[in-house]
TrEMBL record:
Domain of life: Bacteria
Domain (DUF7586) ranges: 349-425
Lineage, broadest ranks: Bacteria, Bacillati, Actinomycetota, Actinomycetes, Pseudonocardiales
Pfam families per record: Beta-lactamase, DUF7586
Location of the Beta-lactamase-related domain: 15-322
Native organism: Pseudonocardia acidicola
Name assigned to this protein: Beta-lactamase family protein
């Protein structure tokens, strides 16, 4: 672990201090992650003093960052073969009005479920069981898969699904299968030990009012967890690839792929499986989650290209700059950009004569071998559909991203077939199986 330069640390502290003051936040803890550890943190306000590291062990409420941990457990169940993302909720949780919606739709907020549970404001009143919520057709507000619609209720249902499949409570499963293996021993469902009091700050005066804290019960999987800066930093390292065998690298990658798009924000923001994905104005793609509960706001974002993460924990209902974590990452990237690994040669996964130019009709493409034993097909000298491919069964290749994600590529010395497309070594090669055939007279002026 390489410590930050003093000038970088001062820049991060200045941003954090301004966010605490301008947002009128009673106390704020912020930090950045690099090289698998919390390399810098600071606290402002409350009982914290500059240079005092005790702020790293004070719990704050995470709010909706809890959803990411709930999603991790659901994907563990999928990887064990106990459920499918295309399975209807009714299969595991019969009797709800959302029974025809799929597990995957609930994870990505595409199920059309109501944003909140029925009854009183669940975040400020004692919770109840799923039966006690009294769900009805009114809790189905949109058609399935039609559009992104953020739903706390959906994650409450996923928590109940976890409990029924495992035969234990959601919080017990989360603790045993995610928190304990990751070493997040100071993450709990209720405040434990040193914990911040949540406050509301008066909009027109410099005064505070304590916010209530209750067990959300059936809605706990949507926002119940409390954690320290150290534990939240461990979740950041998880998102950066240190999964501690809780999930496979492939499943983590699946979580980060955008599914539902939130077009209400200036720069595009999307949702994968229990994770928010957004592109910043600087062009970086960040993965993570925000969280809010009465009295608390939290931020967790990582830049997977840079291998860095940023966290923020505040005990206020509103006021914290939601761009603080992204700003800390931008500061870090500008001051101490990642030094990438040196290039080194590696064997080609296919014979060299199969690489190079191919043509889809008259349009030139190029097939390249890229690091990690992958192939890349993209336009040559002009825009074109592009994708990376991983090895598949029987010498085939499977699309990882882009237009051909999930599609099968078959490659021989005469043609490259992909979906219904046939790529040839020369434009409309008459020796290749070009769909529709090739004019016998060939090319002419």
């Amino acid at each position: 672990m390489i410590e930050l330069l003093p000038a970088t640390a001062r820049t991060l502290l200045a941003r954090t201090a301004r966010a605490q003051r301008d947002g009128r936040v009673p106390s704020l803890v912020a930090g950045v992650v690099r090289d698998g550890a919390l390399v810098w943190s600071a606290a402002r306000g409350g009982r914290f003093a500059d240079g005092d590291s005790s702020h790293r062990d004070v719990q704050y409420r995470l709010g909706s960052i809890t959803k990411t941990i709930t999603a991790i457990v659901v994907l563990r169940l999928r990887d064990e073969g106990l459920l499918g993302l295309d399975d209807a909720l009714e299969k595991y949780l019969p009797g709800t009005p959302l029974g025809d919606r799929t597990v995957g739709q609930l994870l990505s907020h595409l199920a059309g479920a109501g944003s909140e549970s029925p009854g009183q404001w669940w975040e400020r009143t004692p919770g109840t069981t799923l039966a006690g919520l009294g769900l009805s057709d009114a809790d189905v507000v949109l058609p399935a898969g039609r559009r992104f619609h953020y739903s706390n209720l959906g994650f409450g249902l996923l928590g109940e699904l976890i409990a029924r499949i495992r035969g234990r409570s959601w919080d017990a499963v989360v603790t045993d299968e995610v928190l304990a293996p990751l070493g997040m021993s100071r993450t709990t469902t209720r405040p434990s030990g040193a914990a911040a009091q949540g406050y509301a700050v008066h909009p027109w005066a410099e005064v505070l009012q304590p916010e209530p804290e209750h067990d959300a019960a059936a809605m706990a999987p949507a926002g119940q967890l409390w954690a320290t800066a150290e534990d939240l930093a461990r979740l950041a390292t998880f998102l950066l690839g240190d999964t501690g065998n809780v999930l496979s690298a492939d499943t983590l990658e699946e979580m980060t792929l955008p599914a539902g798009i939130d077009f209400s924000v200036p720069t595009w923001s999307s949702y994968g499986l229990g994770l928010q994905v957004q592109r910043t104005e600087q062009g970086s793609v960040l993965v993570g989650h925000g969280g809010s509960m009465p009295g608390f706001l939290a931020l967790l974002w990582v830049d997977r290209d840079e291998g860095t993460g940023a966290i923020a924990l505040a005990n206020t209902t509103s006021g914290l700059d939601g761009g603080l974590a992204a700003g800390l990452l931008a500061d870090l990237r500008a001051a101490e950009p990642r030094i990438v690994d040196a290039w080194a040669p590696s064997p080609s996964p296919v014979p060299l004569e199969l690489l190079g130019p191919w043509y889809w009709g008259p349009s030139p493409y190029v097939l390249r071998a890229i690091p990690g034993g992958l192939l890349h097909l993209g336009g040559l000298g002009r825009p074109g559909r592009s994708s990376r491919f991983r090895p598949g069964p029987d010498g085939t290749w499977i699309g990882l991203d882009g237009y051909f994600a999930g599609e099968t590529l078959r490659l021989d010395r005469v043609s490259l077939t992909l979906a219904t497309f046939v790529f040839t070594r020369t434009p409309y090669d008459p020796a290749a199986p070009v769909p529709g055939g090739v004019d016998e007279a060939g090319w002419r002026a």
